[in-house]
Amino acid sequence: MHQTDFNYQRKDLPAGFSKFGFAFLIIGLILAVAAFFVDQSRAAFNYLVIYMMIVSIALGSLFLIALEYVAGADWSTPFRRIPEFFAGLLPVLFILVIPLLFLNHDLFHWAHEEAVKQDKILEGKAPYLNLSFFVIRTLVFIAIWVLFYFLLTRNSRKQDTTKDQTLTTKNIRFSAAFIPLFAITITFTAVDWLMSLEPHWFSTIFGVYYFSGTVIAALAAVTLIVVVLKEKGYFNPWITDDHLYSFGALLFAFVNFWAYIAFSQFMLIWYADLPEETFWYLTRWEGSWVIFSLLLIVIHFVVPYAMLLSQPAKMDPKRLKFISIWLLFAHLFDLFWLIMPNMQPLKKGYVFSWIDLVFPILGIGVVLTIFNFIAKKENLIPVGDPKLKRGINFHL
Amino acid sequence: MNKRLFGIAALFKTPDEIIRAAKKTAEAGYQKYDVHSPYPVHGIDRAMKLKPSKLGFITLVFGLTGSALALLLMYWTMSVDYPMIIGGKPFFALPAFIPVTFEVTVLLATLATVIGMITFFFRFPENDHPLHDTEYMKKVSRDHFGVVIEASDKHFDESKVREFLNSLHPISLEEIYYSEKETYPVLEPKFVTLLILVALVTSGVTYFSLNKLLYMQPFTWMMEQPKLNPQQPSTLFADGFGMRTPVQGTVARGFLPYPYMGQNNPTEVLQNPFLPTKENLKLGEAKYLTFCSPCHGNFGDGDSRLRGQFPNPPSLHSSRAREFSDGMIYHIITNGQNIMPSYASQITREERWAIVNYIRVLQRAKNAKSSDLQVVNKETGNNASN
């Protein structure tokens, strides 16, 4: 299918984006505020889950954009705008992180000065795990992400009108600079916001573990939007079965990558059997958490693996739509499993509360609203990108 | 002998041309044709209207076979045939088996894929294919792309095919004929000699590297470490022993030190922390039968099974033994008494207390009161008073 002439007409996004986004945002916001009044600690932990989910989608999307430039990929050019819109959540992190910084006392054991004084290990970690350094790190990392978000997307948008090919070269350089910074910042973000919830515990592979889930979440979000918009005719005929197959293959690859990393982390700790490492898993084996731990394997690996295994499955739009929603849930479930057992009252087992259901609503509201807010001003396809034609004619 | 036509081949210079040619050939209705290129060309499957390959099923079946075989082997060797405790892990230690299962799965799946591809799809050892040793094959395996329409096709008509291929503007056309030779033996002397040579070189190199090379510098550096193996003498310590006893007062994880070690009649001993529950008594019975019964007898009568090779201990039913406190019996098991050695390293704390409870049961059974019999009769419904 050689597309020689390219006619792109800008169309408004489906009305559902803004309607649902706004409704979810308002309902989520009201319920979340109510949750904070009912049980501040539980709401704080739940808010952290959804904050990390948004970081995953936003930062993972920026990583996908940078990856396209660095690898010289052209298959992803036709839909590169979708991760660009998702990465637009990065500047919003500055606002979203504020409540968490104020709630540090509820979240982090190491933020209690009197507890640190009685604990030799925490005292030793205090030069790194202290509130001022923590806040500085968090803000600097978000600033780095936002900087590269603006650098990369500004050039990409400028290209729509100027068709200037040197902008792609510039973006390749920015991306090459971003990727090592991304590796460092995402590792420390995972350590700061997830691992330090249990400040006595350590795992050197933890950053990679969070990264694997991040890429799955971002890929799944992009796949979902692309398939939905393709069904509604926004991407016809530019996104073909070959593109869909590549989505399926990438998702499949990262599902395996996650399982590989998650198992590596578990097996080394299980085999060495050192009490200072095993207690983290034992907490997640306590009471009803054992069900969560076992379900995580099924939800995050077994089901998506089986559903994406065969070749036709990887390019079936219906299957892809289902599995990307599934994988977004799986990442949320993974974060829930990482974060919630650190809450003191839940250490002995999971106890249900309506608060756990509130924050995903808020999350969907924030993501959809921001996505729609950015997307409605922009072209859905980077019409000036020199790689676009090759991307549309992409064949396996 | 007449030359028999195999097909007509056309050569092209670029991958775009070959995709167009493949598409046109498929559209013209030819079934028996093939496309050759020096590297995989993107989009050629669709241009040729090929069905998805069935090779994946071979991979799947053999991959699953690999997983099952690996798990079965480890289950049989590690859990059934010769169970060994390694690192305090259970006999069937699934997490430890997963890497091996994964490797065997991948190994069997890849081997089966390659072998399946060669045998089913390339019809190994078909070495008399007419395309072998043709100018065409030399070019398409280097820097050209080609399409061959075979003479066995339903629609094959020499002049029409020539006309059709010419309409695609190829660089050149070539007629391919079946070979005049009848057969090509696989086991030619040259080939067999080559196989033997390869076998000799491979085994020679393997023997040399495993038996000689690994014992040369620098490969031996891993073995020559400045450390002591068990039982080796030491030049560092004054007593010359390489194996050191732990620092005094060292306590192993999960163990409590026993403060009355070496005392014959400690003034006070420990209290029994375990109730004689059914499970506890079962444990005590098992451990008693294993460790105590060889000398003390199955019922504590002191009738050893050792047939005089070791002095018989006194009965556990003597009034002295019955008046021992629980703690005293525990102390004797832990510390030893007279000729009886300490069992502290063989029997755990909990098991020792369970044995104490079980000995109490034996003593009570040998010196039962009539009230005990009434209880037994009530529970079993028997009349055992006689």
UniProtKB/TrEMBL annotation, chain A:
<feature type="transmembrane region" description="Helical">
    <location>
        <begin position="44"/>
        <end position="70"/>
    </location>
</feature>
<feature type="transmembrane region" description="Helical">
    <location>
        <begin position="82"/>
        <end position="102"/>
    </location>
</feature>
<feature type="transmembrane region" description="Helical">
    <location>
        <begin position="207"/>
        <end position="229"/>
    </location>
</feature>
<feature type="transmembrane region" description="Helical">
    <location>
        <begin position="287"/>
        <end position="308"/>
    </location>
</feature>
<keyword id="KW-0472">Membrane</keyword>
<feature type="transmembrane region" description="Helical">
    <location>
        <begin position="131"/>
        <end position="152"/>
    </location>
</feature>
<feature type="transmembrane region" description="Helical">
    <location>
        <begin position="172"/>
        <end position="195"/>
    </location>
</feature>
<keyword id="KW-1133">Transmembrane helix</keyword>
<keyword id="KW-0812">Transmembrane</keyword>
<feature type="transmembrane region" description="Helical">
    <location>
        <begin position="20"/>
        <end position="38"/>
    </location>
</feature>
<feature type="transmembrane region" description="Helical">
    <location>
        <begin position="351"/>
        <end position="374"/>
    </location>
</feature>
<feature type="transmembrane region" description="Helical">
    <location>
        <begin position="320"/>
        <end position="339"/>
    </location>
</feature>
<feature type="transmembrane region" description="Helical">
    <location>
        <begin position="250"/>
        <end position="272"/>
    </location>
</feature>
<protein>
    <submittedName>
        <fullName>Quinol:cytochrome C oxidoreductase</fullName>
    </submittedName>
</protein>
Automatic annotation (TrEMBL), chain B:
<dbReference type="InterPro" id="IPR021776">
    <property type="entry name" value="ActD"/>
</dbReference>
<dbReference type="GO" id="GO:0009055">
    <property type="term" value="F:electron transfer activity"/>
</dbReference>
<feature type="domain" description="Cytochrome c">
    <location>
        <begin position="279"/>
        <end position="363"/>
    </location>
</feature>
<dbReference type="GO" id="GO:0046872">
    <property type="term" value="F:metal ion binding"/>
</dbReference>
<dbReference type="Pfam" id="PF13442">
    <property type="entry name" value="Cytochrome_CBB3"/>
</dbReference>
<feature type="transmembrane region" description="Helical">
    <location>
        <begin position="55"/>
        <end position="76"/>
    </location>
</feature>
<dbReference type="InterPro" id="IPR036909">
    <property type="entry name" value="Cyt_c-like_dom_sf"/>
</dbReference>
<feature type="transmembrane region" description="Helical">
    <location>
        <begin position="96"/>
        <end position="122"/>
    </location>
</feature>
<feature type="transmembrane region" description="Helical">
    <location>
        <begin position="191"/>
        <end position="210"/>
    </location>
</feature>
<keyword id="KW-0349">Heme</keyword>
<keyword id="KW-1133">Transmembrane helix</keyword>
<keyword id="KW-0472">Membrane</keyword>
<protein>
    <submittedName>
        <fullName>DUF3341 domain-containing protein</fullName>
    </submittedName>
</protein>
<keyword id="KW-0408">Iron</keyword>
<dbReference type="GO" id="GO:0020037">
    <property type="term" value="F:heme binding"/>
</dbReference>
<dbReference type="InterPro" id="IPR009056">
    <property type="entry name" value="Cyt_c-like_dom"/>
</dbReference>
<dbReference type="Pfam" id="PF11821">
    <property type="entry name" value="ActD"/>
</dbReference>
<keyword id="KW-0812">Transmembrane</keyword>
<keyword id="KW-0479">Metal-binding</keyword>
